[in-house]
Design goal:
Largest sheet of chain A: 5 strands, mixed
Radius of gyration of chain B: 25 Å
Oligomer: heterodimer
Number of domains of chain A: 3
Shape of chain B: elongated
Number of domains of chain B: 1
CATH architecture of chain B: 4-Layer Sandwich
Strand content of chain B: 15-25%
Number of strands of chain A: 15
CATH class of chain B: Alpha Beta
Strand content of chain A: 15-25%
Helix content of chain B: 25-40%
Number of helices of chain A: 19
Amino acid sequence: MRRPLKIFAFDPMRGRAPFSTLEVEVENELNLKPGPRGSRIRVVDYDGATRRHYAPVDLDDRAILMQGGLDPSETNPRFHQQMVYAVAMKVLENFDRALGRRVEFRRDPRCSFTPGLTLLPHAFRGANAFFDPKFQSIRFGYFTADTKDPGPNLPGQTVFSCLSHDVIAHEMTHALVHRLREHFLEPSNRDVLAFHEGFSDIVAIFQHFTFPEVLRNVIQQTRGDLRAPNPLVELASQFGYATGRGAALRTAVDRPQEGIRSPAESERLYRQARLYETVFEPHERGSILVAAVFDAFFTSYLGRIEDLVRIATGGTGRLPEGDLHPDLVNRIADEASSAAQTILTMCIRAFDYLPPVDVSYGDYLRALVTADFDLMAERGLSERRALIEAFRLRGIYPTYVASLAEGSLLWPGPEQRLTIDLTQQVMGTLLMQAAGAFDKTDETRSFEESRRVWAKQLHAWASKPTITRALDLDPDRKIEVIGFHPTFRIGRNGELQVEFVAQFGQIERTERLSEFGGLPFRGGTTVIASTNGEVRYVISKPLVSPKLRGDKHLEAIERRNQQIEYADSFELADPRSAWLRGPGYDKRMQIRDFRMLHEGLLG
Amino acid sequence: MTAPAAGRAVKIRMYNVGFGDSFLLTFPADDGDRLVLVDCGRHFASRGGRPIDQVVATILDDVTRDGRAHLDLVIATHRHQDHISGFADERWKTVDVGEVWLPWTEHPKDPEARRIRDAQTNAARRLQAACERLPAAAAAPALELARNSATNAAAIETLRRGFAGRPRRLYLPTEERAEATFQPQTLPGVVVHVLGPSRDPDVIRDLNPPPAESYLALLRETSPSERERRSPFGRIWTVGRDEFAAEGHYPELTMTDTEIEAVDGLGSSDPFALAVALERAVNGTSLMLVFELGEALFLFPGDAQWGTWKAALDDPEWRLLLERTTFYKVGHHGSHNGTPKTFVRQVLGATDETTATLGGFSAMVSTETIPMWPKIPKPELLADLGKRTTRLGRTDRTAQPDGFRVGPQGLYVETTITV
């Protein structure tokens, strides 16, 4: 059973355009309380600006159930609550599906709703919305549109960031990225924060392609060229216009990609633009990642519709003037939607294949390739090739690989055969629990107890001298078990694939060294193993230790220097740095939430 | 360009204004020296150095020949008080000036320039007004910065329309990239390169101050009735905080007091964050100039920020030019924002010929340590510079290295660069 709910397709600004509102289906949470308050997320409509609550919506109310959720409305706060809930659930489901497990939030005794996420649709007055990790909470602001340059908005009208699909999806993704990789909030290199931002945009934009009515409409209008300016590739239009930008906040198509060009021409343009080497502001740098992924999607989509267009045009491949045949539009839309879902799933699934700390775009490319290769060695080839090419075109190269061939991009396996040493009982319990998590009727499940058991066993395993060495961990430092979980996935050939993912972390206490600006130097290793415990991939970011293998030692030294260099350039770009003193200066690299980042007051 | 005669030199005099900038450059020419004044200002927070009216008097004295005060060129790098406050002085009316250079953002008619200027000026005014109504302790650091960005109408008037001799005004750079390098009429034999402020939309974005909404947020009304009046929804939807808790209908929706407090605080902005963002926006309009005479290159970056520096360092031609620097006016009073480390470590003095023929580069920093801002000048930056050259003159030190001369009563520090 699914629960149908209505939302604005993008945001209320498109309210006058066709297909501006639509119905989405989300998991029918049993025991859904007014708020809505579900098992993993709850919406609390408290407004800090007025110090008042807005009456919560009860989605199980019969009158609301009968009409398939409240109708879209800017003036009814209960609809706002419904939309925030619906889009947030959609993002959660995309993560659950791609990761092959139910994502659970961490238990945090400081929060009143835990483990879980609290969303506040009208938390404050201001043109911003952000995820606050301390309170496991997403706060949406509302503000009045620019009085001089409001775009299609009414000058001075109230704009709600919680009514933007993209803002909700973006912030929700921040929260999930933080759940999966806590240390990605520490800007240890120039890609880390940009990855947070770019990845959040990717999820928001690719979710657009799951709206069939809008998709069909856009395909008819653009005659299938999804790179042409259209609402699907634009991010947060109302927000962008209302803040006087005269355009959407961001777009998935980067400048050299606009218009159809020959491969040689676009190669030259990208070389000239040198975006990856010259753009550092996290959102803008994030857009490079978004554009690369979108480019790969577009290539894959073109490959999928080539035959359709040929069939429809009697073999010429050249579409005639005038409207496209509705049947053709439907078929193209199906392909676009399926290609988009494939890419989005790849993007999220790659998460399990990322190192626990200090991510770079190059690491992400390797994770994308490895994760997909693992699941569908043959059939995913065209998407993987498109991704590698799109990254290469933008000058994003992984470090320490021999070439951009698929084989070199795969993460390395252990040098010698290696098996995770856990008791059969622990493995069994873990599998049962994770599988049981998909059963939504069971609300009482608890992982806390088994967590203590496996963490202890894993720690003992990783601490054995031979294993420590094989995992590129420093034998002289404490090893922390960051996480351990099984994943369940279905390959394209229908086979079930079950794997274990373990993450280990280590730390060099550099917080007090001025050149680190209050951040530690972190190391860590992600281990991917089969159900029998056999280790398949070792994805490591080592700390500096002479006891490591030679190349890993050098890699660590280089990485440490890079962190210092990045802190230095961060300081250059940070308007605060000259005027800070004392602890403010010493901890300048610590980012507590995404607020300053989103206001553009940093970097 | 005529080849300069051997043994000629450019004289650079750095007036001791405390925290601020004022430099007098003397360029040699066959028909008599040319005098160039780069900036004349002092920060409100400054305690050391000389009061600005004394500095103006000294400058006027220094440029008066046969009873006539004359400057061939006056340059104001950007509109911050610590660079232009001296131009508010009445005495400039009698000074004969050949030409005045200002950043393009000061152009009276250019619509983009006006937009940026208006935004920055309004932001400064709003921020100052807001800070003056906030508790003194909370607002002090922000207020000092806001006052520096406040428009000094008298100084701007002097620069735009003042001085004797009807000087021509140039707003630099022009929109043509080819015109960024030119031979000024007022300085025979000198080639000038204008490296900033850029007209690139990506760099211009950095010149936008935080939006008006953020300043309003500093003073958000606190009375309950006012708060309610501004509610985005009708009364029928709202439930008071106590009421909501008392009803007991929604135990799953309660938040802890700490959580609620955090949300209540979200609407207000941090005056310091706004002030530094505005400070950077105005600094970003700084003219960044290179004067080239013979083999010598004089780099005056004003208070250029990372955006301008980055654009210059990313441009292969500009980068080669910067490598040949023989004199460097340390950017932004020696703050770390004002001089990229890569510039000091990899670009400055990178050309061997410079080192061979001229014996390394010289540098000057006009600064003062203000207790509120202990990171200016930044010791690590000065140490880095110290590793690259021994010839670093500073207004915040009485002892100067070889090749630098201190003026009477410490009014200025001076050096000469052979060209």
